[in-house]
Amino acid sequence: MARLLQAPPRFHPSEWDIANKMQCASTESQKSRSERMIAESRRLLDEIEKTTQKTRSDVNKKIEQRREEIKFWKKELNNKLEQIVHETEVLLTFKTRLEKSLESCKEPLVIVQKCLLNRQRRAGIDLVHDEVEQELVKEAEVLQGVIALLERTLEQTNEQIRLNRSAKYNLEMDLKDKFTALMIDDYCASLTNNTPDIRYADNAVKIEGNFVGPEDWVDFSNINVEKADKQRNNSLALRALIDGILSQTANDIRKQCEMVNVAFRNRVKQVKDAKHKLETLLAMVMDETASQEKNIAALKKAIDDKEGPVKVAQTRLEARNHRPNVELCYDTVQYRLTSEVQEITKNIQRQDTLAQAETELKGLSRRQLSLEEEIQVKENTLYIDEVLCMQMRESVYINSF
After folding, report:
1. Residue 400: DSSP 8-state
2. For residue range 315-334, what is the model confidence (pLDDT) as tens digits?
3. How far apart are CA 176 and CA 183, in angstroms?
4. Helix axes 131-190, 13-119, angle to 10 degrees
5. Which residues neighbour 249 within 8 Å (Cβ) at sequence distance 6 or greater?
6. Is the pLDDT of residue 364 over 60?
7. Tell me, what's the pLDDT at 307?
8. How confident is the model at residue 1, as a pLDDT?
9. Using alpha carbons only, how large is the chain's radius of gyration in Å?
10. Residue 360 falls in which region: left (phi positive, over 0), alpha (psi -120 to 50) or beta
11. Is residue 342 a contact partner of residue 314, using CB atoms and an 8 Å limit?
12. What is the Cβ-side half-sphere exposure of residue 374, based on CA atoms within 13 angstroms?
């Protein structure tokens, strides 16, 4: 039991001094290390603070630069959007002009076709492929060509309007995204350490696959701007083309319309002149017919007037043929009576002029009938050209849209 309760070991005083010195040295060393750590920590904290402030300042600067970039492109996109919207509105008015011009061509074409159809009702020799018909056919071709050209131009205009609206849509979508991005960056620029709703966000620094680079970002908006400029320039060129087409087609139609009207006026004058000549000839034939009828009546009267003398002469000869015996003498009386009968008979036989006169009268009658028919033909032609066609063409008005 005594062994179990041994006294603790005893140390030498020198050991005690050494132990105290070691404790002091160890404490001093720990203190020095702690002081150095405090100093390093303070330096590190100061450096971190400066770095954080510098980084925050740089981030704020970058955010501001980004905001300015977004504002710049937003302004550019807005300008292009206004331009393409304005251009599309103007092009729509040109589309309306094209539609009105196209619609205005339909009535003249119908009138031309009616004129050609009406002129087929001309009769006889007047059913001729004259200058009027040639010009009418040409006018129909001009109108059909103009209608085809306007329809193609209208299709081109509709396509350009579609392209303008597509460019407008791209600009609007880009602007919408820029507006959202600017709002987000404005919010980011407003955040401070004391902002209530700041928080930790897990995976905030993770780069997703749908991120694009700055160059791609600029290229995207630049492409939209270039497309808008291209379509605007195309639209401007198309408007200039439409202006030229509308002006040229109106001039072409107006010119050909006048050519047809001049041809109609000339043809009507020709037909009226021909009708007047026919009427003059008809009057002359009718006068000649009256003269021939008088001539025939005179010839018939002359023949009738010779019946008495010939009967008298023949009766005398018949009576004297009954003289008896030697009295049946061929005396001067007999000679003269015979001569008289022969003379009258010969004169009557010469009256075959009556047959010729009657033949001429029939010829004059046929000529009168022919002239009257031809005058009716001319009257029919004048009615068709002057009344039906020319009056119908008065409603044609070529407007420059």
Report:
1. -
2. 777 777 777 877 677 767 77
3. 11
4. 160
5. 101, 146, 149, 150
6. yes
7. 63
8. 47
9. 63
10. alpha
11. no
12. 19
